[in-house]
Design goal:
Elements: E1 16-18, H1 35-54, H2 56-61, H3 88-98, E2 111-113, E3 123-125, E4 143-145, H4 155-177, H5 182-193, H6 206-214, H7 222-227, H8 232-240, H9 246-268
Antiparallel strand pairs: 1-4, 2-3
Amino acid sequence: FHEKPFAGINGSGKHANWSVGTDTGLNFFHPGKTDEARKVFVTAIACLAYGLCQYNEAMRCAVASAGNDHRLGAQEAPPAIISLYPGEGFQAHVEAIVAGGDLLGYTAERKAQSTGCTASMPVEANCEDRNRTAPFPFCGNRFEFRAVGSSQNCAFPVMLCNAVMAAGMAHVARLIEGGTSHRDAVAQTFKENRHVIFTGNGYSDVWPLEASMRGLPNLRTTPEAIAAWDSVKNKALFRTMGVFTNEETEAVKHIMYENYITSLTVEVN
């Protein structure tokens, strides 16, 4: 399978379905039916927003390859700009929290969706639209990393999802342990990172312009993405989370460059 479009046929990609939970079965990304579960849900998305915003370039590297360069931003694939789509309803809830509102108040009740066929009954659907133009949309009880290339092993992108999520959880924990209330810690995290949340059309021509104004990087090619891989903040992330030493982070960068060059050389020859 190749991400690069060929002979008028779209390139091939995959969706990495990802969630976080406990060994007791608690899914952080399930809205839940109790107040406690709903607070966990809102807090978890705040942690994810922090991770995707603060380590945006690392997440772009997670899906960087020679083949995927031809697919991202076209061919029914999300753009190379990494953004978070939690749904329009949840985005409104984020704004309410930042404005001083309670963590509770968001309900994710499933709705009846018509099939368009009079011979069948309506089916249950998630309350939020599954935005096909988003690289990281919410899908009811998980998120989908939709920018992964078809030739990739999902282990690397999922590892980075876990790393940036852990960084977000550590950030919120530090705020709470420092005396900030749970509500205020989540509100502060959303306020500082909500510009990574985008619920519009990722295929539109205006999104790259808006993303630039928000300060989100648009690393269109693999070399651009790899160049940002071993930044000071990324090295600190990997070292703190026990993922890579500084030397290992630099080694991964060289490996990504070599894979990119080798892929192009094979295609040319």
